[in-house]
Specification:
- The protein is α+β, with helices and mostly antiparallel strands.
- 18% of the residues lie in helices and 26% in strands.
- Strand 5 and strand 6 form a beta hairpin.
- The chain is elongated, with a radius of gyration of 16 Å.
- The termini are far apart.
- This is Prokaryotic metallothionein.
- It comes from Streptomyces nogalater.
Length: 77
């Protein structure tokens, strides 16, 4: 068994996420999102969907990017 790095649960069905040269161990997707999801630099929400990256800065959508002065960003629906 392995231990979730977020909640400390010692669980037989943990899983690993390999990202940027590191290995993370979680017991559920909720803990993985809590640790791995980027945070919008305007409204501070965790970005679980696509998000928008502008010049190395992460936003949950075009509205927040524009609110931070980024131009030319458009949401597609």
């Amino acid at each position: 068994m392995a231990t979730c790095e977020v909640c400390g649960n010692d669980y037989g069905m943990t899983f690993e996420v390999h990202a940027q040269g590191a290995v993370h161990v979680f017991d559920c997707f909720s803990c993985a999102i809590h640790r791995m999801a980027p945070i919008c630099e305007h409204c501070r929400v965790q970005i679980i969907g696509q998000g928008v990256e502008v010049e190395g800065h992460w936003f949950c959508g075009a509205h927040c990017a524009r609110a931070e002065g980024r131009i030319g960003i458009v949401d597609r629906v």
